Amino acid sequence: MRSRTESEIRELLRTSAAFLLERIPELTDELVKRGRENDEAYRINIPIEDHWKSTYEGLRIGITAILQPRHERRDVEYAQTVGRRRAEHGLPLDSLMRSYRLAAQVTWNGFIDIVGDRNPEKLPALLRSATHVWHAIDRQAVAAADAYRRRENELLGRGNERVHAMLDALLEGRADAAVGQVAAAALELPEHGRYAVVTTRLPERVHRPEIIGGLLFLWRMRTDYEMAVVFMGDRSLDDLVEAIRPIVCGIAGISPVVEGLAELGNARRMAELAMRTCTGARPEIARLDRRLPAALVVCQPELARHLASGVLGPVLSSPERGVLLATLEAWLRCEGSAVRVASELYCHRNTVFNRVRRIEQMTGRSPSRPRDAVELSLALDAVRLLPDT
Fold first, then answer.
1. What angle do CA 50, 64, 96 make, to 5 degrees?
2. What is the mean pLDDT of residues 129-138?
3. Is the pTM of this model over 0.70?
């Protein structure tokens, strides 16, 4: 009995579908009109000719599938095609799904109208077939959504690759004005704006967020370190330092602010140079604008080694090398305050004075004289930053 009922339902659907095929242009007009009236995304993203043609073809293939053996049906295949195309058009997935729900309503109402006009006594049987119709359209919607997501991921991947390639060109100084304009549009950032570059080494477990402290970061990986282009807006480098401090576990270099995407190549080199002024002995964030003497040292290592040996040679060969260098460094950092130096080094202030006098005698230079202080400071940077000194 159940088999007979199922057979009758299938025959009713096939008969009704044959008549419904004649009404496809009318159904298409209704679907397109309602779809475009109720969904702005269709009006913006899909030309009306494309919308009408794809809707007509979808209805034709979907209704024809009811008349065909399962292995001949193309409704799911066509739904996948529509899903991919709508992803390429930039139509939101929600809009695509709403169109399938609307198509299910219009198609089902079409079946009711045909059976009601031609065989009203069979309406109860048609109602029992509702699950067949709705399931078929739901299967198409699922196939369209899956194809949409796959295509969207493909497009997103290609878009990211393109954006990363342009960002790399900017950071490596290979971009001309035309690339800068295209990159600005792709990155959705101003071509002329305030930017800085950060270079650092982050542990693998550390998350690299795009927004830190209200600043936008665009991260790129390199073999030995990572770098980020930072859109500064009206923020200062002090704000940038505070933003990255929680995630920097080692050393980091920060470039000065540059005034546009075209200057990112220079900013990247300056950030790398700033990072080279860090010893790595402790977590450290180096701003180049506050490390210029040290940057000069690392830029000219041979000259810096000559400076170190010429200025601090006797100290470097002394058995007291470590103590004297630490005292000199603290003296310069504390601007000649023996009390502060003694507090830092845990010794008496007279001990500090005695060590400074020994340094003066050994080097022939006094840290209280400006020119001598510059030479001593540069020589100390050379000893600190150049391992063979």
1. 40
2. 79
3. no
